[in-house]
């Protein structure tokens, strides 16, 4: 009953000085809305990256040969031999480099990868028209190529590239398949490349060594055991020069990315939290001013029978209502802003509902904490002194 | 609550302040009693100690020494919260500067002591409306103080003082901020309240106002110099 009355009084007093109340709430509004927006963007980005990594498959290992130390590369046969490790389903060695691709008068610089047919399953990357590379292409060093959708668009426009010829650094290749559009992943664009048989690529790129090997395991559970065996073999091969190669699995990468983005979004939320704190100080400031201005009112209330607790409650409620109102407006702006960002910007945003709740409760808490001092000051005023003030 | 006999019993009340390192005695061994239904004026020049005495009688402050029995209860020993409850139930204040809360309407102002008494919304609205009607402001209930004249504001204050029917009405220079004509109106109203049975204590420096009371207590330099009852 009294609480309801006090809240009405608080709202009335906030409403009667609208501009001042709004300015006071601004700190809380900015704090709450920026916490929500920043965490929402952080969460959205994290889940987008996670999705991309999951797209790579969780039962994959990737070996990159960086080539330092005495032995600097792995041959094609050595790479294929890794397929004998128990638990390995398939191995896709890759030789990569850059070439200039030419069709008629159109030139593009494009990355080229020498692959084996196993690439299709391991990387889950298929053709949308034509055919994939076959074992026979590798065996006979055929000059055939698969073309990524972006590169195809650059060279052939809307024409079908399948059956056409493309020149890679002057050597003619017949395009046998157009790859599906995959978009970008962590390794860069998947659509800006040309795939040729690995044996052909050794000559085309004049590179004997396999640069990278993607290994698919039979299941996600065998990743760890395959990885340790793999590292053993590689350590022997590269004479313990462990910086000559890197092995990573997508799970490990996922963990790294998650912890990085989490740290980042927590740091951002922390900075926004500081603005909440500053907003709280603003509320305390205005509450002190309010208590001073209303000393006489407090005196009157006390004279006609308000107890300490009544006055304390009145100012505490006012402070909490002020900060809570700021919190509600902040939640509105934060959620609305996140939604707008999600729809009208390239950022991927997932609204952090738990943060919405946390930051709103935090704004209430700030009202309590920073309202305490001024409210206590008001409650302790002695009526004879308060009544004397004009 | 009894309605006859002694309402206030002050004995040997002394009070002082320390100001700039110097002890100032404001009230010196005051003793007097006030019965239910009396209309007492406490009169004295400024600086005589009458405001301090009013604070004591109104339970806004407690004296250094002596005793103050209000309706049989020793006030000096009570906690701040107990004093607040006593003020709420037993004393209706009428101030020189009205002391209405500017953001509240007339009826809300009158309700305020009843809010602190914990009376239900419906009941206190009824009591407040009755009180305002009694002071002739039945048609101004929802006006803010700023929308009322000085006389009307003081009538709202009187309504506030008597809405909870406390035994004592304590009026501190109630006509001080009013012109002569409205001052007379307000005094008439206070006299009328006395005739209805309220005990009135009127603090003033104006003898003409004080003469309207049935009894005059004169304070000078903290001493009671005269206690005169009209025939």
TrEMBL record, chain A:
Lineage from the top down?
Bacteria, Bacillati, Bacillota, Bacilli, Bacillales
Source organism (scientific name): Paenibacillus agri
Q: Which residues form a coiled coil?
A: none
A Pfam family name for this chain?
FtsX
Localisation per UniProt entry: Cell membrane
Name the UniProt record assigns to this protein: ABC transporter permease
Is Ligase among the key words of this record?
A: no
Q: How does it sit in the membrane?
A: Multi-pass membrane protein
- Please provide, alphabetically and separated by semicolons, the GO molecular function terms listed in this UniProt record: transmembrane transporter activity
From TrEMBL, chain B:
Taking every annotated instance into account, which residue ranges of this chain make up the domain ABC transporter? 8-231
PROSITE patterns (UniProt xref): ABC_TRANSPORTER_1, ABC_TRANSPORTER_2
Which GO terms fall under molecular function for this chain's record?
Answer: ATP binding; ATP hydrolysis activity; transmembrane transporter activity
Q: Specify whether ATP-binding is a keyword of the entry.
A: yes
CDD domains for the chain: ABC_MJ0796_LolCDE_FtsE
Organism domain of life: Bacteria
* One Gene Ontology CC term in the entry: membrane protein complex
The UniProt keywords, alphabetically, are: ATP-binding, Nucleotide-binding, Transport
What the entry lists under Gene3D superfamilies is as follows: P-loop containing nucleotide triphosphate hydrolases
- Is Nucleotide-binding set as a keyword in this record? yes
Q: Which family does it belong to?
A: Belongs to the ABC transporter superfamily.
Q: Which PANTHER family match?
A: CELL DIVISION ATP-BINDING PROTEIN FTSE (PTHR42798:SF6), LIPOPROTEIN-RELEASING SYSTEM ATP-BINDING PROTEIN LOLD (PTHR42798)
Q: What is this protein called?
A: ABC transporter ATP-binding protein
Give the classification, highest ranks: Bacteria, Bacillati, Bacillota, Bacilli, Bacillales
């Amino acid at each position: 009953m009294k609480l309801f009355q006090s809240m009405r009084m608080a709202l009335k007093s906030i409403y009667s000085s609208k501009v001042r109340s709004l300015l006071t709430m601004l700190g809380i509004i900015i704090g709450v809305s920026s916490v929500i927006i920043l965490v929402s963007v952080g969460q959205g980005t994290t889940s987008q990256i996670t999705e991309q990594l999951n797209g790579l498959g969780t039962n994959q290992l990737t070996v990159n040969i960086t080539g330092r130390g005495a032995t600097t590369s792995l041959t094609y046969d050595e790479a294929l031999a890794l397929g004998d490790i128990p638990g390995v389903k398939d191995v896709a060695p890759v030789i990569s480099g850059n070439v200039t691709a030419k069709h008629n008068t159109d030139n593009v610089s494009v990355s080229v990868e020498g692959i084996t047919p196993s690439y299709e399953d391991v990387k889950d990357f298929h053709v949308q028209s034509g055919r994939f590379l076959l074992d026979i292409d590798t065996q006979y060093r055929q000059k055939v190529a698969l073309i990524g959708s972006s590169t195809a668009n650059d060279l052939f426009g809307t024409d079908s590239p399948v059956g056409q010829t493309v020149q890679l650094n002057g050597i003619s290749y017949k395009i046998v398949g157009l790859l599906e559009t995959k978009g970008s992943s962590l390794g860069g664009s998947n659509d800006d490349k040309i795939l040729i048989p690995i044996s052909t690529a050794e000559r085309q790129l004049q590179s004997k060594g396999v640069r990278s090997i993607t290994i698919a395991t039979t299941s996600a559970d065998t990743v760890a055991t395959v990885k340790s065996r793999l590292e053993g073999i590689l350590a022997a091969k590269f004479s313990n020069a462990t910086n000559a190669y890197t092995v990573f699995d997508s799970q490990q990468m996922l963990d790294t990315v998650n912890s990085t983005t989490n740290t980042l979004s927590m740091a951002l939320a922390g900075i926004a939290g500081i603005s909440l704190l500053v907003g709280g100080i603003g509320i305390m400031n205005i509450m002190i001013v309010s208590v001073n201005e209303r000393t006489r009112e407090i005196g009157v209330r006390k004279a006609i029978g308000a107890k300490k607790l009544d006055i304390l409650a009145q100012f505490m409620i006012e402070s909490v209502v002020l900060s809570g109102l700021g919190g509600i407006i902040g939640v509105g702006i934060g959620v609305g802003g996140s939604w707008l960002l999600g729809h009208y910007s390239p950022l991927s945003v997932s609204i952090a509902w738990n943060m919405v709740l946390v930051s709103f409760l935090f704004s209430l808490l700030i009202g309590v904490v920073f309202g305490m001092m001024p409210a206590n000051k008001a409650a302790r005023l002695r009526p004879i002194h308060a009544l004397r003030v004009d | 609550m009894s309605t006859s006999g002694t309402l206030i019993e002050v004995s040997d009340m002394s009070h002082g302040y320390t100001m700039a390192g110097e002890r100032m005695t404001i009230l010196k061994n005051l003793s007097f009693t006030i019965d239910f239904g009396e209309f007492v004026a406490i009169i004295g020049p400024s600086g005589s100690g009458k405001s301090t005495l009013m604070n004591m009688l109104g339970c806004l402050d407690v004296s250094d020494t002596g005793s103050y029995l209000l309706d049989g209860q020793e006030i000096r020993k009570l906690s701040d919260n107990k004093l607040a409850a006593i003020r709420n139930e037993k004393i209706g204040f009428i101030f020189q500067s009205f002391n209405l809360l500017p953001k509240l309407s007339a009826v809300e102002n009158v309700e305020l002591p009843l809010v602190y008494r914990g009376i239900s919304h419906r009941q206190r609205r009824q009591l407040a409306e009755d009180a305002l009607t009694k002071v002739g402001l039945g048609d101004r209930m929802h006006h803010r103080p700023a929308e009322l004249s000085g006389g009307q504001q003081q009538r709202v204050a009187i309504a506030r003082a008597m809405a909870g029917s406390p035994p004592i009405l304590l009026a501190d220079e109630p006509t001080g901020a009013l012109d002569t004509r409205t001052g007379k109106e307000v005094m008439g109203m206070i006299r009328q309240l006395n005739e209805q049975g309220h005990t009135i204590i009127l603090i003033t420096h104006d003898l003409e106002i004080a003469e309207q009371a049935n009894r005059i207590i004169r304070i000078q330099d903290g001493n009671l110099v005269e206690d005169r009852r009209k025939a």
